[in-house]
């Protein structure tokens, strides 16, 4: 699907998505978000890991700036024209955009972003949609939407707060500043920072590691962790018990 600036592949339990518009630093379009959502919905049940990466020197420079206002040659409606539409239609369109990101939170999958160079705006949010982030030393994040008079609306605000806390998340967004790789590792945005020549091998090792435990155990654990912040401690204990009961029954059925 290179005509949309994306490459998809599935190899057994591992799916790969490559942003492939290096001439514009992998800037994104709504057509790409729709294709991402379609790919997520079409994945075989035995896929357990999704790896996202960007071709060239950058992960993604965010939304293609030609789409913000006025005519463009991309066959897409300018973003600012959404403001003239009825409220419910705007909600539906934004939800359609968000679907290109939200499937990466599916408990059935572990998603890994391999980030080099710029990850700006939608690029930052795509990395945030993933469960794990492996960075090269030149990687840097920025939530640029407020600088354009917009808000981050592709699902990145919640994971950002979960990773770095409210105060730092607000500071990052409100100032639109760069968060470089070393700081990203320090504050929890990056799991690992490795030299560029080790990026692919490190992602491969991480992929192999998360594939080692039984799929059901990883699935249930991710679901527990995703919901932990919204539960009381007592409710989390109950959720753990329910998840363990499901695992024990599945194991008994498989090995008993």
UniProtKB/TrEMBL annotation:
Keyword Isomerase applies? yes
- Keywords, alphabetical: Isomerase
Question: What InterPro entries does its record include?
Answer: ClpP/crotonase-like_dom_sf (IPR029045), Ech1-like (IPR045002), Enoyl-CoA_hyd/isom_CS (IPR018376), Enoyl-CoA_hydra/iso (IPR001753)
Q: Where are the transmembrane segments?
A: none
Tell whether Isomerase is among the UniProt keywords.
yes
| Annotated CDD domains | crotonase-like (cd06558)
Q: Which GO terms describe its molecular function?
A: isomerase activity
Q: Which family does it belong to?
A: Belongs to the enoyl-CoA hydratase/isomerase family.
Q: What is this protein called?
A: Enoyl-CoA hydratase/isomerase family protein
